[in-house]
Amino acid sequence: MEERLQKILSAAGICSRRAAENLLTAGRVRVNGVTVKLGDRADPERDAITLDGAPVAGQQKPVYLLLNKPRGYVTTLSDEKGRPTVADLVRECGARVYPVGRLDLQSEGLLLMTNDGELMQRLLHPSHEIRKTYQVSVSGELTGAAERLGAVRELDGCPIAPAEVELLRQTGPQSAVLAVTIHEGKNRQIRRMCAACGLKVKRLQRVQEHHLTLKGLRPGQWRYLTEQELAELKNTLS
Fold first, then answer.
1. How far apart are CA 164 and CA 146, in angstroms?
2. Rounded Cα–Cα distance for residues 147 and 231 (Å)
3. Residue in 20, 26, 18, 22 with CA at minimum distance from that of residue 5
4. What is the DSSP letter of 77?
């Protein structure tokens, strides 16, 4: 059955649909030896589809993973500096999966990974406001720290939605653990919020995304999403 080529490329786990549109516009995709353009269709079971001359594999079965990312791993499939990547941790999953969003090198915790490019883009789109909760160990002036963080409305001149902040426990005269829930995913957002409030982040762990948690997963471990978890996630995005 013929489908739009951006959907075929996304379903093959190569990239998101939006990125596939750029590949097509750039003339990097061919069908049966002929360069195709955005809007063209093909049958992945019948036609020979290539990207930069390399065959595009048939559509893969969608795979959805939940990884407990440890510190010291970069959220990419490869790294020019030779640092360990999250792809190294999920190598045995049987598919080439991509991280949904990012956790920086020193951050840890819940990271979704999938080869479903369409779902990935829907999860990342700000209109869906997926709740993400982090446990943040901080040091500095703690008086009113939760309120100060919750009052941050912009970072480097860019507006942000207010965060929900709760003091979980004070671990010393100038150290505490906070729960911070955000609906956006701006680059290093929580670290930048803390810096703006005079707080130093000692540890940052994403512990929940929507209804998904790290329960039962040690750092470096992963598991497949259950059918119920996947259904609830897709229902949130509908």
1. 9
2. 35
3. 20
4. S
Active site residues: 104
Q: What is the pTM of this model?
A: 0.77
Cβ 100 vs Cβ 123: under 8 Å: yes
Q: In terms of DSSP bridges, do strands 34-35 and 41-42 run parallel, antiparallel, or are they unpaired?
A: unpaired
Query: H or E element: which one contains 21?
Result: helix 17-25
Considering Cα of 181, then 185, then 190, then 193, what sign does the dihedral take? negative
pLDDT tens track, the chain, 238 positions: 788 998 888 877 778 888 889 999 999 998 878 899 999 998 877 777 888 887 786 656 789 999 999 999 999 888 889 999 999 999 999 887 889 888 999 999 999 998 877 787 778 777 777 899 999 999 999 999 999 999 999 998 899 999 999 999 999 999 999 999 998 878 899 999 999 999 999 999 999 999 999 999 999 999 999 999 999 998 888 7
